[in-house]
Design goal:
Bound molecules: zinc ion
Structural class: alpha/beta
Helix content: 25-40%
CATH class of the largest domain: Alpha Beta
CATH architecture of the largest domain: Alpha-Beta Complex
Largest sheet: 7 strands, mixed
Order of helices and strands: EEHEEEHEEEEHHEHEHEHEHEHEHEHE
Cofactor: Zn(2+)
Shape: globular
Organism: Pseudonocardia lutea
Protein name: Zinc-binding dehydrogenase
Keywords: Oxidoreductase
Length: 357
């Protein structure tokens, strides 16, 4: 629980309200720690305490509120990072990645319970996954039947979907192409695996950390670039006959990485931006490569997935071993150790930690 900005997260008993209409209670199985919560804990990404962080998870439905359909008590569910209401301005335009249930909430995130001192507690991202029990919007869960462990299933709601969706749905990588992935944390490593699966011939992994570059190779990267060694744009161009790649997918966050990703593509290439820096950050792009040279610059929110269509397919890819969580899942922590998770993420120790209540 984020009780005060800039302070360690706390594990506190919350008096959970019964689920409001359209909401369900889910007993948490496992929630991966997401790098965006390093920003959230510092107050750099818009969350207002007291709030339970953790925007994607997995678990078993414990209680169903009024006006809920499509999910029942006892269902094992993936709790997705984005709702899909099917009816809002965005959903009817085929863009559930921008669903109003998440992004158009003038009153802020829903209140899900109260602290011992009487203050109301909200669920960040509509979910609040860093807790033993989640109060989630029923339009944000997908029932699944699988023997995958919770620690893996939990990664589907944000990391897997954003990485795979950025390649399949946003960039639409075609076989035989060249792809650069800028940043080899959780998101980058899923993205690399997706680029391989899409049939890319060359996958260039860019990261200053040697361990992450090694993991990138384990995930199928054909080339690695250390941006600390020389200009990463020049290095990527040198690997691709001087042209640059057809697709550059930025999975790092810093605004410089987003500019570099643009410049790593050849003229008329495709750039996908997925990373987040503190709210209000500005990306500066040189004008001619952006305005004249035909590049497509695309944003990716949760991989633009349609959760009921894409998550069952991604579950299958995991079950078949065609994508592999092993290089990405560094360790699990008990919920009480959440500040260790936060410190690991902040200090880039390992790749992903998963919290088990
Ligand atoms: Zn996330
Ligand atoms: Zn919607």
């Amino acid at each position: 629980m984020l009780v005060e900005l800039g302070k360690p997260l706390e594990v506190i008993d919350v008096a959970l309200a019964p689920p409001a209409p359209g909401r369900i209670l889910v007993r948490t199985g496992a929630t991966p720690f997401c790098a965006t919560d390093v920003l959230n804990a510092q107050g750099l990404f818009g969350k207002v305490p007291p709030t339970i962080l953790g925007h994607a998870s997995t678990g078993v439905v414990e209680e169903v509120g009024p006006e809920v359909s499509g999910v029942a008590v006892g269902d094992r569910v993936v709790v997705h990072g984005t709702a899909e209401c099917g009816r809002c301005f965005y959903c009817v335009r085929g863009r559930p990645d921008q669903c109003s249930v998440i992004f158009d909430r003038p009153a802020g995130p829903p209140v899900v319970g109260t602290l011992p001192d009487g203050r109301s507690v909200t669920a960040a991202g509509n979910v609040g996954g860093y807790a033993a029990m989640m109060s989630a919007d029923a339009r944000q869960v997908v029932p699944v039947t699988t023997s995958l462990p919770d620690a893996v299933l939990g990664m589907l709601g944000c990391g897997v979907t954003t990485g795979l969706g950025s390649v399949f749905n946003v960039a639409r990588v075609v076989p035989g192409s060249d792809v650069a992935v800028v940043g080899c944390g959780q998101l980058g490593l899923w993205t690399i695996q997706a680029a391989v699966l899409a049939g890319a011939s060359r996958v260039v992994a860019v990261d200053p950390d040697v361990t992450r570059r090694e993991l990138a190779v384990r995930c199928g990267a054909t080339d690695v670039v250390d941006p600390a060694e020389a200009d990463p744009v020049e290095q990527v161009r040198a690997l691709t006959g001087g042209y640059g790649v057809s697709y550059a997918i930025e999975t790092a966050g810093p605004t410089d990485a987003q500019r570099d990703a643009l410049l790593m593509t050849h003229r008329a290439g495709t750039v996908v931006l997925t990373g987040c820096a503190p709210t209000g950050s500005q990306v500066v792009f040189p004008q001619v490569p952006l305005a004249i040279q035909g590049r497509a610059v695309l944003s990716s929110q949760n991989g633009n997935v349609r959760m009921h269509h894409d998550i069952p397919r991604y579950v299958r890819l995991l079950e078949e071993g065609r994508i592999d969580p092993t290089p990405i899942l560094t360790r699990t922590y008990k919920l009480e150790q959440i500040n260790d998770s936060l410190a690991d993420s902040r200090d880039l120790r390992g790749v992903t930690t998963v919290l088990i209540p």
